[in-house]
Amino acid sequence: MNGYSKTRIGNKTYQTHRLKLNVSDKNIIVHHTDKNPKNNDLNNLQIMTKKEHIRIHKGWKIISGVWAKPCKKCGKLKPETDFYIKTKEVNGKDGISTHCKECTSEINNQKTQKK
Question: Is there a single domain that holds both residue 52 and residue 2?
Fold first, then answer.
């Protein structure tokens, strides 16, 4: 499964990183902070929610305790509050606009000027 180490106990096979942290709940993610699925050192493993895991892999960062998202237009990491909320989370999409509010305004102004 995507290069993850596995450990066999009796008839069952488990992902080693989940065993190391004693995580059996499928709704809890064990993230490899160095993105190496073979590195199961305890210092490399982090327990998180699916939502947090999706965010990390989409380039989000936690800055001073606040989630920051990269804007697709300007590329800057900005706090979640600097983005418009579109809809609920669906199929791994976070429900937050891909452009920050400032860039969204610029895009909308450019569209208005073209009309």
Answer: yes
The one-letter amino acid code at 22 reads N
15: helix, coil or strand?
Answer: strand
Predicted confidence band at 88 (pLDDT cuts at 50, 70, 90)? low
Residue 23 shares a structural domain with residue 65: no
- 10 Å CB burial of residue 40 (0-12, 13-18, 19+) is buried
Q: Is 19 exposed, middle or buried (0-12, 13-18, 19+ CB in 10 A)?
A: middle
For 4, the enclosing helix (H) or strand (E) is none
Backbone angles phi, psi at 15, to 5 degrees: -75, 125
Interatomic CA distance for residues 58 and 72, integer angstroms: 11
Token pair recorded at residue 84: 């418009």
pLDDT by residue (tens digit) across 4-46? Answer: 999 999 999 999 999 999 999 999 999 999 999 999 999 999 9
Do 67 and 37 share a structural domain? Answer: no
